[in-house]
Automatic annotation (TrEMBL):
Catalyzes the transfer of a methyl group from methyl-cobalamin to homocysteine, yielding enzyme-bound cob(I)alamin and methionine. Subsequently, remethylates the cofactor using methyltetrahydrofolate. Belongs to the vitamin-B12 dependent methionine synthase family. Methylcob(III)alamin binds at G98, D99, V100, H101, D102, S146, A202. The chain holds residues 624 to 837 of 1136 of the full protein. Residues 1-88 form the B12-binding N-terminal domain. This is Methionine synthase. Modular enzyme with four functionally distinct domains. The isolated Hcy-binding domain catalyzes methyl transfer from free methylcobalamin to homocysteine. The Hcy-binding domain in association with the pterin-binding domain catalyzes the methylation of cob(I)alamin by methyltetrahydrofolate and the methylation of homocysteine. The B12-binding domain binds the cofactor. The AdoMet activation domain binds S-adenosyl-L-methionine. Under aerobic conditions cob(I)alamin can be converted to inactive cob(II)alamin.
Amino acid sequence: LSLEERLARYVIEGSKDGLIPDLEKALETYSDPLSIINGPLMAGMDEVGRLFNNNQLIVAEVLQSAEVMKAAVAFLEPYMEKKEGSTKGKVILATVKGDVHDIGKNLVDIILSNNGYEVIDLGIKVAPQQLIEAVREHQPDIIGLSGLLVKSAQQMVVTAQDLRQAGISTPILVGGAALTRKFTENKIAPEYDGVVLYAKDAMDGLALANQIQQ
Ligand code: B1M
């Protein structure tokens, strides 16, 4: 198997045997750590999603795949480009109520933190009320919401409504596999008084955060 295929395999098989040496090799051949994540590791995760959908994997196996992805991200994180200096703004991050998927959110956390943002991560399954309290306490410049389940897209609409009712209009950045730009523009944004932007991946999230903070 090629290095690329092996990296995808670790995620698909949920095995860490040989992962770190291969990641070390990949650091020499790929242009940057993020392209290792976005390339072979994500390809592996997509295959996991496909197999899971076809009932060829069970939740426990998908959990192991997630562990491999997390271990890979943790290993690669120190090699990612970091911009030191003044803080560009404060971001509150959360995976919405009812959703436990956090790999994408954690990636967004790393990318934003490495690029001058102060990130407050509220974790997973964050109910609107918890978010509202955190916004009042921390006064962020941006609220970042992640969700991967179809029901999470609807939960984002509810969250936007609850934030509006609480008098909050801080710009919201949304992302996650269940969302689209269209859904964001047509269903979430009309329920909110502030800006709502859709990010297709973590780097897009950074670009949009920079746009908001200009
Ligand atoms: Co689940 N899961 N899962 N899962 N899981 C999906 C999402 C699913 C599509 C798989 C499938 O069936 N094909 C499916 C959803 C179906 C649907 O709603 N339409 C699904 C399901 C059904 C479930 C359960 C219901 C299964 C069950 O229990 N029967 C259950 C739900 C539990 C719950 O949330 N209440 C469940 C559980 C799990 C595990 C716990 C086993 C595990 C998660 C572990 C963890 O996160 N700690 C898991 C996993 C790993 C997946 C898949 C395979 C991979 C997700 C992932 O980590 N991708 C996933 C299938 C898939 O997506 N292909 C699937 C890698 C990650 C880097 O990508 O999070 O998309 P992602 O982030 C991207 C972008 O979306 C974006 O940036 C990242 C890339 O740079 N992004 C943002 C994300 N958030 C952002 C926020 C931003 C900006 C960008 O700004 C704020």
